[in-house]
Amino acid sequence: MSNHDPVQERLGNGMLKKPMVIYVDSCSLCQLKCPRCPATTMGYVSRVGSGYLTLLNFRRLLDSAPRVNHIEFDNIGEMFLNPEIVPILGYAHLKKIKISCSVGVNLNYATEEMLEALVKNNFYSLTCSVDGATQETYAQYRVGGNFDTVIRNIKLINQFKDKFSSEFPRLTWQFIVFGHNEHELPKARKMAQDLNMEFSPKMSWDSNYSPIRNREFVLAQTGWPAVTREEYEVNTGKSYVRGTCYSLWHNPRINWDGRVLGCCWNVWS
Q1: CB of 81 closer than 8 Å to CB of 106
Q2: Calpha distance 13→139 (Å, rounded)
Q3: In a 10 Å sphere around its CB, with 0-12 CB exposed, 13-18 middle and 19+ buried, how is residue 6 labelled?
Q4: Is 31 exposed, middle or buried (0-12, 13-18, 19+ CB in 10 A)?
Q5: What is the pLDDT of residues 225-255, one digit of tens each?
Q6: Calpha distance 181→174 (Å, rounded)
């Protein structure tokens, strides 16, 4: 590798800063076929390729970026389909790196070893994408997914947290609200509470797919100022994904093979 380090070059009168937080796609593979997922069902030609972050490349990344103290495993794939995730978590813990995954995992596949590794290595926070409170409702969007498997894996994580007397990972139940699942919001919220999870309703990016049926009910259940992202922007004057767009400058997105993507949606161009 070259000794040339572009982040040390001056840009105008300032100095480019090395980031302390970075976003890395640990795996671009996914086993589900969600109807409005650009990565699996909408015909986009992905340029990020199909693969996963290796332990070797993860070690190279951390060893070459000593300022980094927090890595978010984030982008389009399912983290637990990475066969090297256990040693990756172990190395991050060894290097005292805070690891989290807030974009969401579907949690339909994970070995006990993987779930134990989350707890033993102080994985900070994990968002679980569970868009329903029953198999019938959940599977309408998470096509190919099994609700009971997801809940069983969440319970396993909690068992390991009890075993090792750990508060980590902090768990969040993310619920994308559609017309077909809105009626299960109260039940899902109660299940999340019983599982010691934060409950986080989320607006769909595509308001034309399974649109909200009972607007007043959804507003009351979520506390939102709107029920679609378009309406949210009109009502608040801000984009619903404003924070995500800011990450282009604050938290660089890195593909599983090392390519810098910039924006998290820069995967098809």
Answers
A1: no
A2: 54
A3: exposed
A4: middle
A5: 999 999 999 999 988 887 777 777 777 788 8
A6: 13
CA torsion angle 121 122 125 131 (round to 10): 50
DSSP 111-177: -HHHHHHHHHTT--EEEEE---SSHHHHHHHSTT--HHHHHHHHHHHHHHHHHTT---SEEEEEEEE
pLDDT (tens digit per residue) in 71-127:
999 877 899 999 999 999 999 999 999 999 998 999 999 999 999 999 999 999 999
Cross-strand pairs, 128? 105, 173
Whether the model pTM is above 0.85: yes
Q: In this structure, what token pair is assigned to residue 102?
A: 């807030």
Under 8 Å CB-to-CB from 190, ≥6 apart: which residues?
A: none
Q: Beta strands 253-254 and 198-203: pairing type?
A: unpaired
Residues for the chain: how many in total?
269
- The two tokens of residue 117 are 């590794």
Strand partners, 129: 174
